[in-house]
Design goal:
Strand content: 15-25%
Radius of gyration: 17 Å
Number of helices: 8
Largest sheet: 8 strands, mixed
Mean pLDDT: 89
CATH class: Alpha Beta
């Protein structure tokens, strides 16, 4: 990723309304130790300038950004199986960051970095256009009450910012177990200039995506998991 390429602003949902609420979770001793010892090596500061990805990872491998990785176990498993891809995780929940750092240490992963900051601001300030291979958005907060729909992350104009930062042929991959949010996100992504849906609607499951405990809890409640896969059209 070129360090001197300007990143265009990516406006947040509903003019500055946050798509998340900070949770006061307790860190385990292992998470705290991992955060204290490994964050200097794997956590990047939020900065008002484009990220030099080649400098950060030490290579020019494709970049995949995961927005809201939760506890990060699935993130670590995917990165472990794909050492030729660089993964940047964006998360504000510190116990989850500590857990992913623990996974990084246990698995000796070299291809993950983390930014502990609002994903909307990170995209707007640090990620240059045309630089991303894919975005992973797994089980984002559905904000199920109608009055809270304005807080949903996967909505325009944020989806426009995702499309702008994808390289041609890159993808947006979202998974949710909330039917209303799935329908909502499918409509928003389908209306986003530069994105096309290679499927007639929802996408078939990707067998390389590990199931999370959160997902298993939803399945136990008879929630149907829906997957969305849209691709950046070449020439857009």
């Amino acid at each position: 990723m070129a360090g001197n390429e300007a990143a265009s602003p990516g406006p947040p949902p509903a003019q500055g309304i946050k798509s998340y609420v900070l949770r006061a979770g307790r860190m385990s001793n292992a998470q705290r130790r991992s955060y204290e010892t490994l964050s200097p090596f794997f956590c990047l500061p939020f900065e008002d300038r484009p990220l030099n990805c080649e400098g950060v990872f030490g290579n020019g491998h494709p970049l995949v950004i995961e927005i809201g990785f939760g506890m990060g176990i699935a993130t670590a498993l995917v990165a472990e199986k794909n050492p030729g891809t660089n993964y940047l995780g964006l998360e504000v929940y510190r116990p989850g960051i500590g857990r992913l750092l623990w996974e990084i240490g246990q698995r000796d992963l070299k291809n993950i970095r983390i930014i502990e900051h609002d994903a909307v601001e990170v995209l707007g300030k640090m990620i240059p256009p045309g630089s991303v291979e894919g975005f992973h958005i797994f089980f984002p907060d559905p904000w199920p009450k109608k009055r809270h729909h304005k807080r949903r992350l996967v909505t325009r104009p944020f989806t426009d910012a995702l499309a702008e930062r994808l390289r041609p042929g890159g993808y947006v991959y979202m998974v949710t177990d909330w039917e209303n949010y799935a329908d909502w996100a499918l409509a928003e992504l389908s209306a986003t200039p530069g994105l096309s849906n290679p499927h007639s609607g929802f996408a078939p499951p990707r067998d390389w995506r590990p199931k999370t405990k959160f997902e298993e809890k939803g399945l136990a409640k008879d929630h149907r998991v829906r997957e969305l896969w849209l691709v950046k059209t070449r020439g857009s």
